[in-house]
Amino acid sequence: MPALSVIPDDLPPSIVESIITQIKDYQANHGSLIKVIGSETENSVLLHPIGVSVFPTLFPRKLFDTAIELQHIYNELYCKVAEDEEWLSTTTRALRKQEPLIDALWTVHEEVERRRRGNGTMRYPRQEVSAGVFRSDYMLHHHQDHDSDGDSDEKNWMENVSLKQVEFNAYSCAGGSHANKVVDMHRYLTRTNVYDFELEQTENRQTRNNICVNLSSLPRNRTIHGIASVLASAHAMYGPPKSCQHPTAVLMVVQPNNFNITDERPIEYALWNWEEGGCPIPTYRVEWQDVLQYTSLAETGELLFHPNQGRAGRKSVEVSVVYHRAGYETKEYADEVGMEIRIRLELSRAIKCPSILGHITTAKKVQQALVVPDVLERWLAPDRAGRIRETFFNTYPLDNSTPTGVRGRELATNLLAADNYILKPSLEGGGHNIYGSDIPRFLDGIPEAQWSAYILMERIRSPRDIYNVLMSSDGIVADEVVSELGIFGTCLWKSTNSRNGGSNCEVILNNVGGWSFKTKDALVDEMSVVKGYGCFDTPCLVDTSN
Fold first, then answer.
1. Rounded Cα gap, residues 94 and 103, in angstroms
2. Is 4 a member of any domain?
3. Which domain holds residue 421?
4. Long-range pairs of 193-197 with CB within 8 A, sequence gap ≥ 24
């Protein structure tokens, strides 16, 4: 068995089976589940447990703390980028020609601005405040020391790793509720001494590490509260209803046939049960395709939601905050209805989480452009820019008009070189990346003009010999694993003055809203728990001295 684990080498299978039984019970009782679409009957629905790790996975405490600290800088950066329309437009101009989703978002933005001006008069007053629920994802990168032997590498593995950003998500960030529940589960199992393997001491017991699981090594996670809190703050900032006769409420826009309700609903429930400020915050859900049917928009900008339209006793509400958990797929904008849905939401007075320009910042092309030397200083002080620049990894465009783009094409089309890279489109939802030796063949199968819709990112090489047991709908796997730490950022910002430049944004609220920790088999490329790649996990934080 590999050395880097909290699991004793000789742990009897019966103990692992006992832990798995307890995990199943916990998941069933706490909604750590995924809905099985198509299973609903008149009086029932099937759900299955979400993938989780059986044990917490080792992670350096120092780098966990660093990721938390850096989120405040990343929040500031993306708030300011979202208000820098000139830079965003220039950066994504070529992408619009190749990526229908980005083109649709810009078309929505342009139509919103056109309608606001009307016949030379301003209608639909602009909402200057925006909200954001961001997530910055990292993996550990192992800097191999070729001069050291295996034992030395094992002993000092935490000294040879650094934090590298996988991607930054600025729209419809998922996984927060699942992550919250799984951390609570591992902390419960720890509190009840399930991981106290000293109780199972045998005469010949030997382990390859001295790392124990205790509550101080498992950080608390309140992501559900963190996300609900920023929505509550936005709701409060919206203020009293402008339409007088209607109360205000948060509106969560969701996708139909939703298997991930146990990640979304807890945020809704948290707002209905909100006690900070003395009263609950009404929160409603509407499916993307139903937005036009169940909402109306006044020329003065108030967005009214009519829950269960036509049913007695359900009063209309004025929407204070639009929380987007849909609208990130190209097909959602494939017709005029889809476009009009987003236009109506954007035209409204409601605070958007996030705005249309905030949505555009999540494009991988934006992430790649921020890696370019000296770009960050457009919005950040040099010392703050330098701190997050340390988390960047080699990333290339695939255009044929810049030296870095030409270099990216050379790497992507070379079979040997491509093995060290990942090809990423500017799409959300997971499962879109192309890996390693598949890249040249993939590019060969699409028109060269479409290459610029992708970016090329060097693979992050995580430390090996970290071990865990993972359980998912595909079964139970005990093997080497790699993990991904995602830090949720929650923020409010206000547009000021010009919409071109870095000084046009006032950050009102800048918080860490929680985090997620996901782990997968080391041989698996993708990391998407809800799509079957990986499991939610909890970091067992260890210090260098361990």
1. 10
2. no
3. 13-459+479-542
4. 194/19, 194/22, 195/6, 195/55, 195/56, 197/8, 197/11, 197/15
- For 137, phi and psi rounded to 5 degrees? -100, 135
Residue 128 pLDDT > 70, yes or no? yes
Within a domain: 40: yes
**In contact, 490 and 508? CB cutoff 8 Å:** no
Output the average pLDDT for the chain: 90
Q: Determine the 3-state secondary structure of 289 from DSSP.
A: helix
Annotated ligand binding at 242? The verdict is no
Return the structure tokens found at 311: 């049913």
The answer to whether the annotation marks 427 as part of a ligand binding site is yes
Q: Is the pLDDT score of 122 beyond 60?
A: yes
Is residue 402 a contact partner of residue 411, using CB atoms and an 8 Å limit?
Answer: no
Asked whether the predicted pLDDT for residue 499 surpasses 70, the reply is no
**6 falls within a domain:** no
Query: What's the pTM?
Result: 0.93
Backbone torsions φ then ψ of 483, nearest 5 degrees: -125, 160
**214 lies in a domain?**
yes
Please indicate if the annotation marks 541 as binding a ligand.
Answer: no
Lowest mean pLDDT among 87-96, 285-294, 318-327, 472-481: 472-481
Alpha-carbon separation of residue 323 from 110, 127, 273, 286, 328 (angstroms): 21, 15, 17, 10, 13
Q: Is the peptide bond before 219 cis (omega within 30 degrees of 0)?
A: no
Strand partners, 49: 33
- Whether 429 has a binding-site annotation, put simply, is yes
CB atoms within 10 A of CB 36: 13
* Span of 10-14, 235-239, 535-539 with lowest mean pLDDT: 10-14
Q: Tell me if 364 is assigned to a ligand binding site.
A: yes
Residue 86 counted as an annotated binding residue: no
426 annotated as ligand-binding: yes
Q: Is 448 annotated as a binding residue?
A: no
Give me the helices (H) in 36-175, please.
61-82, 85-98, 100-117, 150-155
- The annotation status of 150 as a binding-site residue, yes or no, is no
The whole-angstrom separation of Cα 233 and Cα 235 is 5
The total domain count for the chain is: 1
